[in-house]
Design goal:
- The protein has helices spanning 8-24, 31-39, 58-69, 78-99, 110-114, 116-135, 144-171, 179-189, 191-203, 208-235, 242-250, 255-263, 266-276, 284-296, 299-319, 325-339, and strands at 103-104, 107-108.
- By secondary structure, it is mainly α.
- It has one domain (8-339): Farnesyl Diphosphate Synthase.
- It has a two-stranded antiparallel sheet.
- α9 packs antiparallel against α10 (208-235) and α10 (208-235) packs parallel to α16.
- It is globular and about 65 Å long.
């Protein structure tokens, strides 16, 4: 996967978004708040201060850069950036639980150490905090109707994501799930990226046409980013990440897996099928064999082409959006960083 330098907007806005997030989640003794702080990487399992990793607040940055590109103030929209990051965290908690992932980024997932029921509850608490944080836009003098409009953009995106997840869950492991149908699902799951762009623009009083163009741009960038995440999750397999690859194989979940099944024939397809109906654990040797088959039939190339196509389409939207050259360049720089190309 190609990487690009960290864009200046990310370097400039990340600390401010992080500070806004910490204002949203107070340093409370509440067990629930401790769990939320753990998920966000600020505390250990006992609630003691810890800095785990350095998460990039890409969605929050996308919100603020979208605001700036249409002439708005990033400072006045900071609460919106924090709200969309909290919404993303809400989906992360539930998705990790749904997939049964015991470990995320080198440490126990929230639900794994707290239990499934507490994990569900923590996710719901994160969503409630996201909405409360969005209401803090009033402190920056934002008009009530503008805040309500931003909330509607966010809730519509959340509904679209859950509808896409319903389709994905229903199709798992069935003949109805194809690379093409999965790409449609990914488009819906990328709604939060489109929401970030649309919300940021709407808070700066952008015209409806500009808001719609930026929403479409964001969704395409998000879909490309999700595809490349799935490619990295498979071809970057090591250590405990193997369990994620095995789970993808078992449920025929993710674009690379579905592409491999569609594009393989004969012995290669039989080997993939045999892996799913196996009677014994998958050895490292067998997993590496599966990776070679998937790459050999062109599954990786298919995914990279699909991501590239969506990135190209997103840049084309920017060019005809009516934004100034410098504004479009800022968004393109951030998009390429997020989607890795």
């Amino acid at each position: 996967m190609t990487t690009t330098p960290r864009p200046s907007s990310l370097m400039r806005l990340q600390p401010e978004i992080e500070a806004e997030l910490k204002r949203s989640i107070a340093d409370s003794k509440s067990p629930l708040i401790r769990m939320l702080r753990y998920h966000l990487g600020w505390a250990d399992q006992m609630g003691m201060p810890e800095r785990h990793g350095m998460q990039e607040r890409n969605l929050g940055t996308l919100t603020l850069v979208s605001t700036e590109t249409v002439g708005g103030s990033a400072q006045k929209a900071m609460a919106a950036a924090a709200a969309i990051e909290l919404t993303n965290a809400y989906f992360q908690i539930h998705e990790q639980l749904r997939r049964g992932a015991p470990e995320v980024n080198g440490r126990a997932a929230l639900w794994w150490h707290a239990g499934a029921s507490q994990g569900i509850n923590a996710g719901d608490g994160m969503y409630a905090l996201a909405r409360l944080t969005l209401m803090r836009l009033e402190e920056q003098g934002m008009a009530a109707e503008r805040i309500v409009g931003a909330m509607a953009i966010l809730d519509k995106a959340c509904l679209r994501i859950t509808e896409s997840l319903y389709a994905e869950i229903s199709a798992e492991g069935t003949p109805q799930q194809t690379p093409e149908s999965y790409l449609e699902t990914l488009k819906g799951k990328a709604s939060l990226y489109g929401c970030a762009c649309a919300m940021g623009a709407s808070l700066a009083h952008a015209q409806p046409g500009t808001i719609d163009a930026l929403r479409e741009f964001g969704e395409l960038v998000g879909a490309a980013a999700l595809i490349r995440e799935e490619v990295a999750a498979i071809w970057g397999v090591h250590g405990s990440a193997k369990s994620q690859f095995i789970e993808m194989l078992d449920k025929r979940r993710s674009l690379p897996i579905l592409a491999a099944f569609k594009m393989s024939t004969g012995k290669d397809q039989a080997a993939l099928e045999a892996t799913i109906v196996r009677d014994e654990p998958l050895s490292d040797e067998r997993l590496n064999f599966m990776l070679r088959i998937m790459e050999g039939v062109g599954a990786k190339r298919f995914c990279e082409a699909a991501a590239g196509k969506r990135m190209d389409a997103s840049i084309a939207i920017l060019k005809r959006s009516g934004l100034s050259a410098s504004a479009a360049e800022s968004l393109e720089e951030l998009a390429r960083h997020m989607a890795g190309g």
